[in-house]
Amino acid sequence: MASHLISIIYYLFGDPKKNSLEHRLFNTISLVNGTLNIFGALGSFYLENFYIIFALNFISGLLLIYMYYLSRVKSIYYALYWPFNLTILIYLSAMWFFNGGSLGGNHYYFIPALVIATILIRDHNIWFLYGFYLLVTTVLYSVEFFQRSWVIPYKSDLDRYLDAGGNYLFVQILTGILIFILARNLNIERKKSDSLLLNVLPESVAEELKRNNHVVPVRYDMVSILFTDMVGFTKLAEKMSAEELVKELDQYFKGFDAISTRHNLEKIKTIGDAYMAVGGLPIPNPTNAIDAVLCGLELQNYMLQMKREREEKNLPAWELRLGIHTGPVVAGVIGTEKFAYDIWGDSVNMASRMESSGIVGEVNISQETYDLVKDFFDIEHRGKVAAKHKGEVDMYLVKAIKKELRYPDHPLKANDEFLKLYMSI
User: So what does this thing catalyse (predicted)?
Assistant: First the structure.
């Protein structure tokens, strides 16, 4: 029910993912005010100046509804700022003279009108706006004071009290609606900005940044760093348009993101066709090496499935080179304008060497990672491998979860024995 209601609200006033805060507010306020004016016209039959008041309410309501249409359907709203304000001001000024002036409470309406104008203001001068509203109300009060005959009075004090009370109550309701609209939209904007922040920072780091305006670097004694690289990317990229290339990478990396999250790894960044994720931070855990290897196995399986699907369609496919190393790092946030969460240390270099010197389609791991995961997986010793700036280092290839720790029909699916051993670490 709630999701259905939200869908209706987004349909009427705009989707926060597609429409700015100002756009959604303009849509909401123009529709609400336009609708209220039209209903006000239909409820004015009992008044002495029925035809005039009906025309003012109905015509101004139609104009506001038309502005809503231009904004919501045609996406024209910045250009409507002053037409919108002038429509409201002309309507209120006319009602001032035909509905008892300030004695009938018409001055109350200028308060929400100014609030609306201030909320929607963007590139205009706010002092000019306030001065303009001050000028209009000063002129109205002056005319009423010096030319009282221009204002149509009430027949009795009872009529005046009833109209003033009705106007006051109506303005209270209207102001409440405006506050609700603004609060609702601000909450949506806050959630959207928080969501964007969580797309580039881990949740605990994002909270620290919002709370303290900076993040203290943290040293982690044991994390597992996973690097991947698309094999043949450069050659295939030369044959693809920019749109196709980005679309392809987006599809793959969305899959990578889902797999990394499932195995409790924190995505750090992508650089071109390279992908980097880390287990064991920002919240340390003793199982991060196992998590990283499980993630690596699933990533390679995902790439194999994608390759089969693409070959069936006679489309070129990429393969993946993947390396994992476990060791200490320092993590923190760098930058002020476009900040990024990153890690530093020799462990990062070693993980990169595991990837660049690794075998395509395999999960290549270092000695340090092997020592932590050997009880869980079937692993082959590849031997000594020459790694750039590292000399000869041991490399291992993870083939699958150990037979006794997996389901017979699925080499990547851990059974209860695996989970029991995993939880005991």
Answer: ATP = 3',5'-cyclic AMP + diphosphate
